[in-house]
Each structure stands twice: as structure tokens, then as C-alpha cells.
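hey
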């Protein structure tokens, strides 16, 4: 027997309608080059979204078309998110930090019909436009007065195309499983792969992200999403904010700049913010140097890469900011786990407390996880066993865009994340490595992430990476690459002594190489693949090859 409930589809447009009706005066603050100190309300934003919907229609954008964006976190990108998806088209956020060859590949593979870009990216697009095969128009996200001179084909100005349109619209009707957004993964090897989100998954993900033990954002919060809107929908914050009615502060192109972030937090009374570890390091460094503070900031969410313990302790002890670790992937919309304590865990102290807070956290309802050994046997949640981390759920991909159907998931329907993890009896997952990065020494696994975290906690170390290099007896041993903090000097012996008592003796790296900088991917992850190539013939001390 079927239940007798309304069959209301879960649509991104419904978030917009809800926000406009219930929080019309709530503010969005946006940093854009042509309008300093821009701010408007949800009512204004969604009125313009309807104008944009009409503009998309006049450009011939239809259900299923891909619309590219190369843009920062600002109000125009916000409008694009809602207008493109509500038109039944697919908002394809492109990461402008990718190499030109990757951008060409991604935009051609996605078959973007038009591209909206920040004025800053016009020269980049000009340099590759001859190789972009499907784009009919480039629309610059600015006002007529600030339009750059450009040789881009089909060039249009965002504010001009909006100004011509009425703010009433009849959005097309389509199913909740219709594709709404798209983001390519920043794989460190091989071609990038497209993840295609739909309305239903996006709405469910936003519900889950807003839960009290996840982001826990309320109508009284002031949210600063630093994680880029071109990277997994800014972790869903762009949907959660309007869903719950919180004020949104969009930092524009200076999202990684400590001074800009401090100013925005202070001026707008920001209470919660999300970002990768690097941005918090920048903010902390600026606060240290300037003596400035962030008194309204209560919580920050750190994800995308392992969080060094120093970020957590400095944030908490110097600035009274609680750090929550989150883990997820582009393929997962992205949320998988979130670190908030359960009842009874508040008694933890000292190292035990820090260790627990640094874990990736417990599963968010809607995204199931398990760890398995090499034979796909499930491993216990004892906090010790580590294995391949697998997930499944309503906002996790089933296939990559244009990939062979059925080739992405395992036979039993789980998605292998490529991460290696432990899960403790509390359900708290901790990432120990990427499957490809784990170091196999004498058949036992060594976590490169644990070693990197320990190295980075050294006060003179700016950044570090650990890779496995050939060893005749152990097959692989860890080699530590260290970038020293500016103005500091440190010896190899000092660094190796730092590991004593902090990790198992046999985990301590066999050697240390000092480097000027480490290579990063466009999303800020260290390019281990490149390092492995560079150091593949590295001769460890006291080893005959
Ligand atoms: P992306 O799809 O670019 O967001 O990258 C996802 C990958 O980033 C995951 O599979 C992890 O390897 C890594 N990652 C994300 N969050 C964390 C975290 N909290 N700790 C460690 N690694 C993380």
C-alpha cells in the first residue's frame, strides 16, 4: 500500500522560493571588483535570478544544457547557481586554477554552451578560446562600465543582459532527478572526471548539511563560505544559507587572504565559516602579525585535506573558535562525515581530546560508510584496523559523466573513495591515507598523513610531504620532504628527533629532503604523484640499490 502523502519534488528552486518568502530582507554581502561593499537582500537576489533565467532562455539555454562558470564566491555566481538549475540546465562550475590543458579538456568534455566568467579570467579564456569547441557566448560577470576590451567570441556583459529582462518568469517543469550541477574532480593523475549532481541529491544534501550536529547553521548565523563555489558547490553552503535564512558573506577573489577575511569577519559579525586548511593558516598568520581578533567567529569547518593540529589549537586557544573537521569528496556532493562530539565525550582532555577532535568525524545520516580489507571483507569499527573506505547514499554519484554505465561503483553498489581510514567504536572515522599514497614497508602500512601532520606540527616547518621510495629490504620506506618556514633554519637530525615518541619507531622517515616549495593541485592538495616521479630514484642513506 502506498502512503497518502503529497508527491512534492525536491527542487533547488524551492529553496529559492522559501528564502524569498520567509527571509526577504536577509542580506547577502559580496566582494566584487566593480562594486566595492556590495550588499543586497534575498528578495533582490532572487528577483535578479528570475531576470537571469529569462536571459538564459534568450541565449537559447534549454533543459540539459551545460552552462560553465569561471567565477569566485560572489553574488552573481550565487544568482547563476539558482537560475541555471531552475532553468533545467546544468551549472558547471569550472576551477579557474586548473592548468589551461585541463580547462580545455573539461569544457569540451562537458560541452559547455555558454560560459560566465569573472573579468579576471578573460585573458585566460582568450588564450584558449580557439581550442574550446562548443562555447557560443562568453558572458563577463560585471557591469557595462567595467567591461574589459576583449577578443572573446560572442562576448556579452552580465549586467546588460540582465537589465533587458523582466523579473517575472515561468520556470520550466522537470523531474527532481534532473541534472542541476556539475563539477570535475581534481584527480592528480589521468583526465579529470565529471560528477553530475541532481536537484534531489542537492536538496537532501543541504538538509543534512544544515543539521545541528553538522554545520548547524540557523537563521541567526552569519556564514562566510570561503571554500570556493567552483569546488563542490562550496560544500553546499550556498543552498543551506537560503534554506535556513542565514546572512551570507561572499569573499570574492580574495578568499585566501588573511587580512580580507579578518576585515569581513569583523565588519559583518561572521559566526561560522568553511574552508581548507591553507586559508586558516593564512588567517591565523595575519591575526598573529596584526594583533587583530575575530570575536564573533564561533566555529570554523575545516575539510578537503588533513587539518594540522596547530590550526585547531591556535584557533581554540588564541581566538576561542571551535574547529570542526569535515570529510567528503566531489563525488559525494561533498559531505560524508563531520566532527561534533556525542553525549559523554566532553570529558576528554589533553592529547586524547585533540586526537578525537582531529578525526574526520562521524557519518552524516544519508551517507553510509564502511572500511574493507583487500578482499572486500568489512573491517571492525575498533579505531585500529584500517582499510579502504567505501560509501553509498542519496547524494553520492552512481557514474561519472559520459563514463561507461556501471563502471564506477563496485558490484555491491558501494563507491570506493580511494581513502584509507579507521573507524572507532564511537563511529568516528579518521583518514590515514589515500590508497595510492600509503607507504607499504615490509608488508605493513605506514600513514603518510600521520607523518606529515607530525612534521607540520614542528614550529619551523611550513609544509611537508611524505612519499614511499624504494628500499631493497622493506620494499618501500618513507622519505620526508620539508619546506622550512621563512627565516628559519633546521637540521635533518632535529626534524627526525621530533618524531621520537610521537609515532611508532619504524614509521620514522629514513631521510629528509629540504625543498623550496611543494607542488600543489588546483584545489590545494599536494601533488604526490609528481613528487613520486621526481624522487623515484632517490637513494636512501645506507642503502645499496
Ligand atoms: P575533492 O574531491 O577534491 O574534494 O577531494 C576529496 C579528497 O580530499 C578525499 O578523498 C580525501 O582524500 C581528501 N579529504 C577531504 N577531506 C579531508 C579531511 N578532513 N582529512 C583528510 N583528507 C581529506
Amino acid at each position: 500500500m502506498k502512503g497518502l502523502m503529497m508527491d512534492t519534488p525536491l527542487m533547488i528552486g524551492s529553496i529559492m522560493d522559501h528564502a524569498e518568502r520567509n527571509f526577504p530582507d536577509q542580506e547577502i554581502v559580496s566582494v566584487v571588483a566593480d562594486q566595492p561593499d556590495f550588499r543586497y537582500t534575498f528578495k533582490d537576489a532572487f528577483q535578479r535570478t528570475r531576470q537571469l533565467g529569462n536571459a538564459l532562455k534568450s541565449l537559447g539555454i534549454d533543459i540539459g544544457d551545460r552552462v560553465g562558470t569561471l567565477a569566485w564566491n560572489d553574488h552573481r555566481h550565487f544568482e547563476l547557481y539558482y537560475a541555471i538549475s531552475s532553468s533545467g540546465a546544468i551549472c558547471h562550475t569550472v576551477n579557474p586554477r586548473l592548468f589551461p590543458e585541463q580547462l580545455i579538456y573539461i569544457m569540451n568534455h562537458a560541452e559547455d554552451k555558454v560560459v560566465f566568467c569573472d573579468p579576471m579570467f578573460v585573458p585566460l579564456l582568450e588564450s584558449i578560446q580557439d581550442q574550446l569547441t562548443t562555447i557560443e557566448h562568453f558572458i563577463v560577470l560585471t557591469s557595462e562600465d567595467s567591461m574589459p576590451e576583449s577578443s572573446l567570441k560572442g562576448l556579452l556583459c552580465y549586467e546588460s543582459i540582465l537589465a533587458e529582462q523582466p523579473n517575472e518568469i515561468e520556470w520550466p517543469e522537470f523531474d527532481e532527478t534532473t541534472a542541476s550541477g556539475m563539477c570535475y574532480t581534481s584527480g592528480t593523475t589521468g583526465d579529470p572526471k565529471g560528477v553530475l549532481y541532481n536537484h534531489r541529491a542537492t536538496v537532501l544534501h543541504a538538509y543534512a548539511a544544515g543539521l545541528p550536529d553538522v554545520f548547524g547553521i540557523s537563521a541567526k548565523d552569519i556564514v562566510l563560505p570561503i571554500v570556493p563555489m567552483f569546488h563542490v558547490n562550496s560544500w553546499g553552503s550556498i543552498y543551506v544559507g537560503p534554506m535556513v535564512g542565514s546572512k551570507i558573506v561572499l569573499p570574492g577573489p580574495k578568499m585566501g587572504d588573511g587580512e580580507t577575511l579578518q576585515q569581513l569577519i569583523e565588519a559583518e559579525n561572521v559566526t561560522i565559516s568553511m574552508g581548507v586548511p591553507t586559508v586558516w593558516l593564512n588567517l591565523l598568520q595575519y591575526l598573529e602579525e596584526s594583533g587583530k581578533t575575530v570575536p564573533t567567529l564561533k566555529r570554523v569547518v575545516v575539510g578537503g585535506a588533513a587539518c594540522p593540529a596547530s590550526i585547531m589549537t591556535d584557533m581554540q586557544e588564541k581566538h576561542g573558535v571551535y574547529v570542526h573537521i569535515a570529510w567528503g569528496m566531489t563525488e559525494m556532493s561533498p559531505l560524508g562525515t563531520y566532527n561534533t562530539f556525542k553525549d559523554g565525550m566532553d570529558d576528554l582532555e589533553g592529547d586524547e581530546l585533540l586526537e578525537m577532535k582531529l578525526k574526520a568525524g562521524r557519518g552524516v545520516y544519508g551517507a553510509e560508510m564502511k572500511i574493507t580489507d583487500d578482499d572486500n571483507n568489512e573491517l571492525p569499527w575498533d579505531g585500529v584496523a584500517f582499510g579502504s573506505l567505501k560509501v553509498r547514499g542519496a547524494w553520492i554519484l552512481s557514474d561519472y559523466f559520459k563514463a561507461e554505465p556501471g563502471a564506477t561503483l563496485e558490484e555491491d553498489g558501494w563507491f570506493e573513495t580511494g581513502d584509507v581510514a579507521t573507524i572507532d567504536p564511537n563511529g568516528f572515522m579518521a583518514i590515514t591515507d589515500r590508497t595510492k599514497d600509503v607507504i607499504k614497508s615490509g608488508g605493513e602500512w605506514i600513514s603518510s598523513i600521520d607523518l606529515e601532520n607530525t612534521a607540520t606540527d614542528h614550529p619551523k616547518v611550513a609544509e611537508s610531504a611524505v612519499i614511499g621510495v624504494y628500499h631493497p629490504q622493506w620494499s618501500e620506506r618513507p622519505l620526508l620532504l620539508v619546506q622550512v618556514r621563512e627565516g628559519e633554519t633546521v637540521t635533518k637530525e632535529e626534524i627526525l628527533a621530533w618524531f621520537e615518541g610521537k609515532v611508532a619507531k619504524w614509521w620514522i622517515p629514513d631521510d629528509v629532503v629540504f625543498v623550496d616549495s611543494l607542488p600543489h593541485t588546483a584545489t590545494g592538495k599536494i601533488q604526490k604523484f609528481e613528487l613520486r616521479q621526481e624522487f623515484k630514484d632517490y637513494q636512501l642513506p645506507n642503502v645499496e640499490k
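The radius of gyration is 24 Å. Residues 42-58 form the longest helix (17 residues).
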